[in-house]
Amino acid sequence: MYRVGTLFFKSAIAALVFGLATTACLPDVRTFVPSAAIGLQDGPMVSRVGIGDEGEPLETTLTFELPGLSNDRRPAFARLVVPSRDLRVAEEPLHIVIRSKNRSLDWAIPDSWTIPQKKRPVQVPSGDIRALLADAEELDERLVLTVTLEPSLDTTRPGDYVEILDGGDDPNQRPRLEICENVEDTFVGTELLGRPTKDSVTVNLISLIPLDVYVEYGTRARAYTWAVGKTRTMLPDVDPLLDRTPVEPIELKLAGLAADSEYHYRVRYRDAGGGPYLSGKDRTFRTARKPGARFCFAIVADEHLQNKLLHRHEEGLADYRQTLENVAAAHPDFMISLGDFAHPELYDGRDAVGQFEAHQRYLDQRSYIDRICHSIPFYLVLGNHEGEQGWRLDGTPDNLAIEATLARKKAVPNPSPDGFYSGNEKDDAFCGKRENYYAWTWGDALFVVLDPYWNTIRNPRRSNDRWDWTYGKEQYDWLQKTLHTSDAKWKFVFSHQLTGGTTTYGRGGIECAKHKVKGLPSFEWGGEDATGQYVFPEKRPGWTHGPIHDMFVREGVTALFHGHDHCFVHQELDGVVYQECPMPGDEQYRDRFYERGKYELGHHESSPGFVLVEVDAEAVNVEYVKTNTEGAKAKAVYSYTVTK
Ligand SMILES: [Fe+2]
Q: How far apart are CA 468 and CA 504, in angstroms?
């Protein structure tokens, strides 16, 4: 029996490193690989399940030894996951039958799993197969389950099959049986807070099984005054072609709260089949601060978790976990990630194949941020690697931009326009409200989050034209209106990168914000061409509020917080702070991108760490809290104060 490095195992490692007691809401999945590989042991072998070109059925039998499990107790959840690099199907989905001794279940695999680049197998999960465990037999004091995967002969055509890899030492190249013994083990997303307002907050939870859930909340721990909840049941006939995630997230809005107050809450849950309700831990949050109140918030950027997982960068992962602990220790009102967070787009490896895999990458991140964001509301600013670029759209739902958007919306409760938040009001085809740009007021500060990707419909690296980087006119007009109509003393803007940049990849800070800084073209951001000519009116006809930087100066923006360049750089231009924010975990990059971004000005520090911003009516204090995993207490290595 192996315990392999799946998402769930990573979660368990994260739990250990955080030194937390096992709570009711930590995922703990037991993973078993077949007792005999279906292929050779010295490398992955391929077997196929489906129907061969000559009409012959193709089947595979898998035997799992299950030490430590017994037939007396039915687990809360079980599924098969098979690694595959090839799926051939004339008309999706491919229907497979999973058969045990006396039972069988259907498994529909959509062809969105077909992999364009064969670098890394797709992990194809089945639905819940716990019913088959009743056929496990006791052999030598341990349970043994044998299942056969065979084609559904009614619907499978000759030449349709899914390949299954097996063999070798790489656990990602072996089929496996994943079992959650208890209901609390089924949480792949524990409590995550989002969308805090002056009178509410939203809790997001994701379980692999249908649950009954409610949340108790009030102003004192374990003496809750109110409850909100609803019963969730997974539809057994959910169409795998339309909904490619296993279960919907559970999102509950805790409402009717007073502004500028601390609240406690606790999640209560049980298997939708019944049984007693279990309890999560007591958690806390704050509603929006009133003007004049002192508060702080945290910023992280460019987590690049998928790269660290793919290359097993343990040091980078440890740094990331330590940074999150340091964030929690600072007790911020909320945490903002500047993007390149979940990485459905992956330059190293491959893009996520379909919504399910994009969702898995978000769940990988949930196993990290959930450690602190049960009590620190989270906002996501989209990065390029979130994969939601306009140039990927093709008029269908079958592209990464749409699939990644849908996956993100299930895992991260970003704000939609309501009485507290303004933002993108549009309903986009296939994904509805995009929750990609939004603004809110907290204490004496206005927060504005921007998205430079959805409206960039030509890839500037391909077109070699940095004028292609754009927020789009709708977002631009909303930005101007939002800044102009706010009477907040401090105005903070958040964008993964600038539109333009020192390179076609959109790198850099003030060096490319105006031509006068380094004699560079400034594009949409500064409105100038390579010779310094002001060409904004021709390049952006009808954009009457001028280039972005000029608007920031005119509307009194305090600071732009940007990421993308993986280091800390504090700059200032025309009274506006430009703060490039560091990675929370950094092993592979170090300072490469400081040079790649062609930074020359301002104060520079390397990653990893986070930015802590303290705000009150008199001043804004910005600190770089650098991460040190060698036991030293986290400390601010650099700080500055902005006053008015
Ligand atoms: Fe980036």
A: 9
How far away, in angstroms, is 379 Cα from ligand 1 center? 17
Assign residue 130 the CATH number of its domain.
2.60.120
Tell me the residue range of the domain where 548 lies: 288-643
Cα distances (angstroms) measured from residue 23 to each of 229, 249, 385, 559: 21, 20, 33, 39
- Once rounded to an integer, what is the mean pLDDT over residues 633-637? 80
Give 388 Cα–ligand 1 centroid separation in angstroms. Answer: 12
Based on the domain organization, do 173 and 312 belong to the same domain?
A: no
Ligand 1 mean position, distance from CA 142 (Å):
49
Letter for the amino acid at 117? Q
Distance CA 268, CA 399 (A): 37
Tokens of 364: 């990988």
Q: How far apart are the first and last CA of the chain?
A: 64
| Bridge partner list, 569 | 580, 604
Q: Is the pLDDT of residue 239 over 60?
A: no
Q: How far is it, in rounded angstroms, from Cα 559 to Cα 557? A: 6
Q: What percent of the chain has pLDDT over 90?
A: 67
| d(CA 591, ligand 1 centre) in Å | 15
Whether 619 is covered by a domain: the verdict is yes
261 lies in a domain? Answer: no
CATH, residue 603: 3.60.21.70
Does residue 64 belong to any structural domain of this protein? yes
Whether 18 has a pLDDT exceeding 80, the answer reads no
**CA 170 to centroid of ligand 1, rounded, Å:** 30
Query: Considering the entire predicted model, what is its pTM?
Result: 0.91
Distance CA 146, CA 140 (A): 15
- Looking at 154, 181, 208, the residue that finishes a domain is 181
Select, from the ranges 1-5, 170-174, 423-427, the one with the highest average predicted confidence (pLDDT).
423-427
